[in-house]
Each structure stands twice: as C-alpha cells, then as structure tokens.
Amino acid sequence: MDKSLIPEEAVKGLIIETLKARNIDIEDLEIEKLLTIAPEGKGDYAFPCFKLASIVKKKPVDIAKDLEKEILELRKKWPIIRNIKAENAYLNFFIDWDKVFRSVLLKEKNLPLPNLGDGKKILVEYSSPNANKPMHLGHLRNNALGESVSRLLESIGYKVVRTNLLNDRGLSVFQALLAYMLYGNDTTPETTGEKPDHFVGRFYVLYKEKEKEQPELEEEARKLLKRWENNDPQVRKLWERFVGWALQGFMETYEELGIRFDRIDYESQIYDKGKEIVRRAVEKGIFQKGEEGEIIAPLEKHALPNKVVLRSDETSLYITQDIYLAIKRYNEEKFYKLIYVVASEQDLHFKQLFTILNLLGHEWAQRLEHLSYGLVLLEGGKMKSREGRVVDADDIIQEMIDLALREINKRNPELGEKEKLERARKIGIGALNFYLLKFDPRKDFLYKPEEGISFEGETGPYLQYTYARLRSIIRKSGIDPLRIKINGSLGGEEEKIVKNLWLLRKTIIDSALRNDPSILAHELIHLAQLINNYYHSTPILKSREKEKRLLLIYIASNILAMAMKLLVMETLEEM
RNA sequence: GGGCCCGUAGCCUAGCCUGGAUAAGGCGUCAGGCUUCUAACCUGAAGAUCCGGGGUUCGAAUCCCCGCGGGCCCGCCA
What we know:
By secondary structure, the chain is α/β, with parallel strands linked by helices.
C-alpha cells in the first residue's frame, strides 16, 4: 500500500523531513515512539517537543511554535495531512479522514492489516487439560486467551500452529481408571448418556471419595500406573479407551467454543524421553549430580533457584519432559516462536525451563514466551479441583447460553426454536469469551457465580448488538453497499468514526505483539460506543446522504466483525 | 527467609512497558429518552487521598527506594 496514505507514516515522514531541513538529528524510530494520539478536539496525532528541547536548547513551547511554519510549508507533499497546529509544547496533526476512508478503507471494504509475520511459524500451546476430569473455568480463560492470541497473530501474517498438550498419564488418570475398573460395571458414556469427559470425571470423584475410606486404593492406582508403564496390554487397552473418552469430551467443548487444534502432544508418549538429554548435559558439565544422585541444573548464576531435572531414582520430572518436548517441537516444526499459555503460578517453572534450554545451547530458546495469566479465583480463594472447588466449564457455557436464551425469549418470542438456539449460542459464548478476555491477562480475577456474566455495558453482546444494528439498517435500505458510488464528503462525526476504525489497526498489532487481547477488547468497546452514538443521533435511511452513510456503516460493520472474530466471538445479523 | 505479580470513584476495570496537555470506561445511584433505521441502546448528573511515605525530573498514576495490604511461587508435584 502507498505509504503516504497511511496517517502514521505520513505524519512521521513529514516530521522527519522538517527536522532534516533544520539539521536536527533524531532517529526515525524515536519519532515513532514519541508520536501519540492527541486528546479529543486538539487534533489526531500529536508530536511532543520536550525531547527536542535538550537537542536544540530552546523551550519546548517555542520549538513547537517555531516548527509550525516550516511544517505547514512541507505539508503539501502529504495530502492526507489536513493541517498542523502548535499548541503548548505539541505539534498537533489533523488528518483528512475522508481521504483515508476513500482511498484506503473503501478499496479494501475492511481494515488493511500489515503482514508483519511474513508467514513465520508460531506455536501456541494452550488449553492442556488433564484427562481425568472435565475442564473448568480456568481452562476457559486459557482457551480464550490461546485462541485469541492465535487469531491475532494470524491477522498480522504469522502462521500459527495451535498446540495442545494432553496430560493423559498422570497418577490421577489412573486413579480415575481404577475407580472405573472397580465400579464401572462396563458402562460407557454411550450407555449412560453422559458427556464422555464428565463420565471420566465422575470416576475420578468416585475414586477420591472411596480413597478416604480405603487409603490402600492409592497404592492400587500406583500399581496400575506401573502396569501401564510396563506395557501391560490389558491396562493399555482399557486406558486408551478411557483417555479417548476424555479427549472426545474436550473436543466437543472446543467445538462449542469455536476452537480447534493443529497439533496435540500426548504426555504418555514423551514423559520418559528427556533422560538422554539430561545425561548428555551432565557429561558436558552443564548439569550436576546432587547428594542423593539427583540431577540438578545450576541456575544461581542466572538469579534463579537451582532446579532438579531428574529424580535420584532416575525417573523423569515435569521439567524433564518439558525440556524434551520443546526440543522435539523445534526439531519438528522449526518454529520462529513458541508461546506457552499457562497460569502465573508457573512463572518460575518457565523462567527455569527457558534458562535451561539456553544453557543447553539452543538459540531458539530466546524466542520462547510464557503468556502468564492470573488465576481465576472463587470467593474464598483459589479453585482446587481436589476439594471440588471448581466451576465446570461446560456448566458455565450452558449457563451462558441459557441466560442468552431467556433474553431472546423476552425480546423475540416469535422466533423459531432453532433460530433462538443458534442466537443464544453465539451470544452466550460471545459474552463469555469477551468477559474472559477483557481483563489484563496478568490479573487474577474473582468469579462470582451468583452475579454471573452480564449482557449489558462493556460486554460481548454490546458489540454484537452494535453489529446487528448496522446490518439491520443496511438490510432495510434494500441497497447493495458494494454498488454505491460515493459522492460528497463525510461529516465530522463520520470522520471521527473513520479515525477510530483506523486506530484499531495499531491496536490489533499491539494486542498481537504483546499477547494481550484485552487491549483490543477495550478499544473495540470504545469504537462501538461511538457507532451507537452515531446511528442514534444521525438518521441514515431518511437522509439525503443515505448512500454515503450506508457505505460507512457497511465498512464499519465489516471491521467490527473482523475484530470480534479476533476475540473469539461470532456475529449475528439480528439480535 | 527469598522471588514474581497486583493495589486507580460504592463495585469492576483502562491508562503504567515507552513520564507530558482536563486521570478514561462499565456496573450501581439519580434525572431524562421507545407512534421515527431493534431500549442487549442513547443523553445528562453526582462520584477519585491514583494504597502510604520518600526520591529522580522542568513535569510522576506512570521510573527508583522503603513500607502496608492481597495473590502466586521457591531442588526430586504437575
């Protein structure tokens, strides 16, 4: 795309040229950093002159005033810059948004995003449930984050491999399996009609209950695990079926949420594999043997606590497996980046893992990232599945859909059942995912079940409603927006919308590069507020400027839909 | 004992990375708006010791230090 048509590029170019004419030496990158959004009413972009003060040795206010004349002269080369005004220590730039609308948005019928990724491959590991029980609320936050970050990265040109690490081999899996063997009576999810992961989870809960009266069951479960490790065909066969149910159940939930994985790594296939790597590292002197024969990665030089990477009985630890898996993934995928979406309680673990991989000499270890997110808390503290203090993921999803259905029945009781359900699903899940994404990922959040998740205010349905209203107006016009030929220019409010549509571009880039969908979530609310205000105060169908306005809201609706998709939300034509 | 994260109106949050022009939204409260493109909406009002104290700076919600409060973690759990 022609760079002179991109507002930020034009402003930057103009500043550079002006400064060059004055022999002021400042790096291009520095200018880009300094450039900010001007406050309401003062312009569009603002360039603060404080930094220049130390170079030119004048007061910032005077510099701004000084540069104003010159910059106005040079402006002609950048026709999308309408005006420049010096105010206080700022140079405020006014953009011709009408021109941006015509020459950029109108061509694409959407917001053009830059191809920053250039097809580079990024693995995003997320969700990663345990196969002994259904997912809970924490997984829903994880799923939403992982999927949204994946979509954001794709939107700016990266190739994303959505990766799930299934823990299908921990002791708890065998505890559930043991309960099934003892009390299952050959039932299956099909015979009981349960969702398969819930069927599995029920036996895990049953095990925990029985264990209280029969502590010897724990030893039984360990024996079962041992038999599995020794490839006992009977156990293996049963286990495969059992874990398959769990996975099948997860897949149903993923489908409901609109997510799918490109790659699944199974712990059962790798849990034992890291030992050779550890042994070689000991030979090279990277790792050391401890007093009991355990292997330690010395990390104190890197300001981290040392980490045991192999037990004294030579069995693997979680970190052993993670070291192996990272290397395996790199060898297979040659990824540019690997992003682990894992809760903040594992911050230290990942710091240690990344440092260890660095010590092992893998240059790509520097491009490993941990998207650490805060815990989902319930009143009274952390969720603990062992204590039954969890909110089941499928329950929440269903609850959201039911709430949406109730609203639909209030508003549109005449709709067919199928249509109602379809809308309820989109709205319920949209509300849920938006809620999970709108907070800074780092922050813990307290979930209050009795308050539920709202459909009003800063919510997913608010965005969906805005979209539906726009689509409804377009539908009622009977005009195909693609056939409209624009004449006349946009008004002030309309230019403001174009401006904010355009600013979404940088927001999406920031969200993607910072692994933080909440940035986009907030900006999208702001945009929807402007749009709602616009169609409330401005008649469209009854206006002489109908066609121009239709075109604007058509493009706005496309951009809204695109952005909502990045937040794992679907759109509705009617609400 | 040590490390990491968080602390902004009654409540939930944005802004902090990269210091700069009146601290921005939502919920709730109060006052308005459906014979006019869908009221899951819109307009207006009230509501803030930016946890406390120092420091750096022309300038601090933002950077640094010391406290206080909350969460998470710390060599053979995952």
